[in-house]
Amino acid sequence: xxxxxxxxxxxxFYADPDGKAYDVLGLYYxxxxxxxxxxxxxxxxxxxxxxxxxxxxxTEATPDDKSSVLQQGGMFVFKGKQxxxxxxxxxxxxxxxxxxxxxxxxxxxxx
Length: 111
Prior knowledge:
This protein is of the alpha+beta class. The chain is 32% helix and 12% strand. It has helices spanning 20-25, 31-35, 38-45, 47-53, 98-107; strands at 74-79, 82-88. The N and C termini lie far apart (34 Å).
């Protein structure tokens, strides 16, 4: 898995190789969302710039289960078991605006 190749403390990393969390959270999956979603168009419009940026990138990131590349993600912020923020990615390259995430997190008092 990619996370084993990153300079990030593994005890602070959550991985879900079986995709159970994706199912429970109802995240989108499929070729339509991955390649043909209007949200994905932004990524494909920058394809040449992405190729240039990744020219010298050598980390192997292809998952063992190739179908998992069709899985869309999302952003979820919890405080304990309380869900503070939820957003499903509509397509490839579609992500929660960080300002929204920071606003939610910064408004919640630390326990």
